[in-house]
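Inverse folding, one chain.
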């Protein structure tokens, strides 16, 4: 009798467990990017909503971008778990030296052309395993090939208001379950725009930070109103930080070498050359090293290992990286543009420089509460999100779950 009762209770337990599992909601992940949000903006006393979210969840001391610390390479690293040399977006602007074809942020033709995108994105991994996805803007989300873009996505339009973007997320989350995305993306550019225009220490930048903080508050309020605040795992992150530019720290390459005779790509913090032969490469390096101040000259062999920036034919064979605060100009036109607009901040430099670090805050049912952790790497987000969603990650990645999973309950 005793044995009968104990096996009965065992079956009852199994039954209840299976039924509750059947009705347990599948996890949600929402990744929000605030472009160029430097790690220390959170310590300025102007971000109450973000800090509240951090208190109830996880906050990393910093968030390390991949090299170059630019927008497109990093947003794509976050969703693929790959360093730029492996996913193909080696800068915001670059070209294929064997065909001459160009990729450029802002050029809708190249940005939507799937041939440039060599990584498997989170939304691809998710779709293949039955999880729908949606993006209210994300670099790399607008490709033509259906299997390479999220289930729902928007073509980038910087004039769409913050409220419209937030409402878009809320609307997607209210779709019937059979159509509802469980992996969502949201993007805001203000901290980057104001950081470039006014510099990372300017009051105008602080106002932009405040405004975005309020928008996070609005989003959380709207999630609460549809009873989803406790259900959605939110990861708030940034692609890189920002450093102050100095007007007298301009490196005019046209005064050092004949730029019209050389094949090169890049601007600002990073310029790379594609030389015709070894002799030209050696001569160029010699000239630049003798004349240069405020920058490093590398080859694919000498570039620091942690840049992971050599194994791609779109990367040049002479790579110039400016010191933070310095900036390259490669033509007279660029010099005039710089004088006229006088940008006060930039990024794209060495990814381990403190000013290039961004933020990583996470909150939701999957995450620990009131938990501070070490500086995280952005390539580790891909395996983390797969783990939360319960999907099998692409194995051929640079990201590692072991470096980030401490943030999970
Ligand atoms: P950057 O500071 O040059 O690395 O790039 C930041 C800029 O990229 C932002 O100011 C946006 O205008 C632009 N941007 C961000 N996301 C997209 C996108 N999905 N498509 C086109 N442009 C974008
Ligand atoms: Zn950016
Ligand atoms: Zn920027």
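Residues assigned per position:
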């Amino acid at each position: 009798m005793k044995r009968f009762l104990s096996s009965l209770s065992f079956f009852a337990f199994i039954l209840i467990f299976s039924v509750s599992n059947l009705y347990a909601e599948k996890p949600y992940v929402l990744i929000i990017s605030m472009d160029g949000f430097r790690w220390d903006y959170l310590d300025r006393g102007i971000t109450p909503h973000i800090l509240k979210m951090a208190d109830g969840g996880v906050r990393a001391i910093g968030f390390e971008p991949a090299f170059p610390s630019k927008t497109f390479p990093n947003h794509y690293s976050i969703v693929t778990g790959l360093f730029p040399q492996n996913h193909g977006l080696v800068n915001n602007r670059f070209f294929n030296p064997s065909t001459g074809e160009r990729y450029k942020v802002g050029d809708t033709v190249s940005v939507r052309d799937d041939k440039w995108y060599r990584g498997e994105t989170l939304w691809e991994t998710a779709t293949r395993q039955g999880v729908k996805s949606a993006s209210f803007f994300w670099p790399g989300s607008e490709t033509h090939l259906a299997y390479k873009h999220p289930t729902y996505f928007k073509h980038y339009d910087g004039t769409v208001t913050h409220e419209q973007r937030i409402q878009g997320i809320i609307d997607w989350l209210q779709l019937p379950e059979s159509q509802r995305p469980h992996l969502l993306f949201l993007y805001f550019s203000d901290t980057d725009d104001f950081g470039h225009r006014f510099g990372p220490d300017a009051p105008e930048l602080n106002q932009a930070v405040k405004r975005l903080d309020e928008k996070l508050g609005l989003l959380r309020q709207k999630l609460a109103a549809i009873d989803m605040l406790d259900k959605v795992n939110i990861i708030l992150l940034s692609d890189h930080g920002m450093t102050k530019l100095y007007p007298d720290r301009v490196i005019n390459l046209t005064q050092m070498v004949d730029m019209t005779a050389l094949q090169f790509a890049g601007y600002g913090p990073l310029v790379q050359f594609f030389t015709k032969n070894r002799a030209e490469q050696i001569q160029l390096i010699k000239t630049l090293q003798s004349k240069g101040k405020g920058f490093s000259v590398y080859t694919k062999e000498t570039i620091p290992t942690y840049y992971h920036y050599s194994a791609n034919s779109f990367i040049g064979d002479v790579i110039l990286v400016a010191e933070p605060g310095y900036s390259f100009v490669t033509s007279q036109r660029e010099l005039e543009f710089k004088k006229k607009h006088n940008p006060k901040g930039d990024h794209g430099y060495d990814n381990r420089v403190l000013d290039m670090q961004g933020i990583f805050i996470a909150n939701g049912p999957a995450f620990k509460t009131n938990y501070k952790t070490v500086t995280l790497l952005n390539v580790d987000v891909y395996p983390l999100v797969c783990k939360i969603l319960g999907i099998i990650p692409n194995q051929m990645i640079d990201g590692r779950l072991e470096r980030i999973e401490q943030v999970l309950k």
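The chain has two domains: 26-243+351-407, 247-342. The domain at 247-342 is CATH 3.30.1360.180 (Gyrase A; domain 2).
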